[in-house]
Structure formats: structure tokens, C-alpha cells
Amino acid sequence: MPAKNQKNLNNKTIVHIVTGSIAAYKAGDLVQALREEGARVVCVLTGCAKHFVTPLTLRALSGEPVYSDFFSAETPYGVIHTSLAEEADLVLVSPASANFLARLAAGFADDLASTIILATLKPVLLVPAMNDQMLAHPLTGRNLKTLRETGYHVVDPIVGDLVCGKEALGHIAENSTILQKAARLLKK
Fold first, then answer.
1. What kind and span of H or E run contains 86?
2. Of the residues 6, 26, 50, 71, which has the fewest C-beta atoms closer than 10 A?
3. Residue 132 located in a structural domain
4. Which of 60, 106, 136, 164 is catalytic?
5. pLDDT confidence of 4, banded at 50, 70, 90?
6. Is there a domain that residue 65 lies in?
């Protein structure tokens, strides 16, 4: 157990990728929790994520610019995806949608988020959140298996309220669980 004032993520940079899941609305709370543990958090939004949470919200909560485009004139980086991949101590994808997991398992590199993951040598932590039927689909299972075998780490979804009105497996994990896993990965 760390000392009272010691934070688990002090001086760590976390690139937090937010994908297009309804659970993206919880991203702001996660950013705040990561910062409370001492992390610097740089957010990257996929195109679909911007339908659920705004860059302005995450910028206000993180205190950092928010990125979503390879070709933004506002980036301080020459090559944004490799720069963020190298700068990160951990790449966190929360929430990780079924679409993003499928694209990642297939090796797609067609947006900023996926290219950061392919360019990083640091740990990648995936936090899936989706409808229970999507989660139970054999292709999603295969994709998660492939990603785990590739060396990515996963915080499994939990039973909870889903946007479709059911209580079922697919709800995003609690922030405390995500923080614990991130801290363990960064201590290795």
C-alpha cells in the first residue's frame, strides 16, 4: 500500500483513447481519477467517440490538448502517432468498442488511435464496453483472444445497466478496477 501522499501514477503519461461506445460518457470521470493518482493524461478521440463526448470536455478535465486527427495543424508534434506512442508510459483504451477491438485485432491502422497502438512499445490496456450480445458474439471473443495473445491487457466488462435497458454483461468496468490494473502494469 502506498504512503498516504504517494500516488500510484506519479510522473506517468497515459494516452487515453476513447472510442465510440455509449460508455464514453464516463471518460471524463476516468481522466479525473487518473490525474488524482498523479498521471498526465493525453486524450485521443476516435471519430465515433466525438458523438458521445466532446474534445472541449476532455481538454478541460485533462489540462492537455485532445487529439483525433492525423493532420491537425494544432499539434506540436511532427509525426503525431509515433510521438504520442513514444511519449506514453501506458496506452489506455477506455471504452473499447466492439468495432475498435475488431479493427485492432485485424491490424488496421487507418486512424490516429489505431496507429498509436501499432506504434507503441509500451503496455496497452483495453477496457471493452458494449451490448451483451455483441460481447457474446464469437467474432468479438476471437478478437479479444487475438488481442490478449498479442500481449495486450484487458479489463473485462462487468454486469451492469446497458443502454438497451437490460442488466447484463458488457457494462464498462469500474474506474477503481481500471486504475488498479494501470498501476500494476506501470510497476512492471
1. helix 80-87
2. 71
3. no
4. 164
5. low
6. yes
